[in-house]
Amino acid sequence: MAARVLALYSHPADPAAFDAYYAQTHLPIAKKLPGLRAYTTSAGQLATGDGSQAPYYLVAELDFDSLEAIAAGLQTPEGAATVADLANFAQAGVQIVFYELKDV
Fold it and tell me: What are the tens digits of pLDDT across the range 57-82?
């Protein structure tokens, strides 16, 4: 069974600085997580059904083989570096959840 890390980033004060840091610094760090199978992010502005501003600026999805693989990856130096780096650019806040995936 597969599992996912879902990171929901709040709207930053400086979107251009956030985007640059995320692309040039955070992505290369996070993509080194042991056990990572896929890494995708939202592209462009998030949409809502009623046309209002979405509560989040960016959504990132990191896929692993299992919840155990997520935990193991986060317990490595690469995992510690990924988590520690959040403080360098996600000052507006980030919500992170882990969950198993199932086909329906």
Answer: 999 999 999 999 999 999 999 999 99
Instruction: List CB contacts of 95: < 8 A, sequence separation 6 or more.
Output: 7, 8, 10, 56
d(CA 38, CA 35): 9
* 87 burial level (CB within 10 Å; 0-12, 13-18, 19+): exposed
Using DSSP's 3-state secondary structure scheme, residue 77 falls into: helix
pLDDT tens digit sequence for 39-54: 999 998 999 999 999 9
Helix axes 67-74, 77-85, angle to 10 degrees: 80
Q: Look up residue 72 and give its two tokens.
A: 């193991």
Domains of the chain: 3-45+54-100 (3.30.70.100)
Is pTM beyond 0.90? Reply is: yes
- Sequence-distant (6+) residues with CB within 8 A of 69 are 3, 35
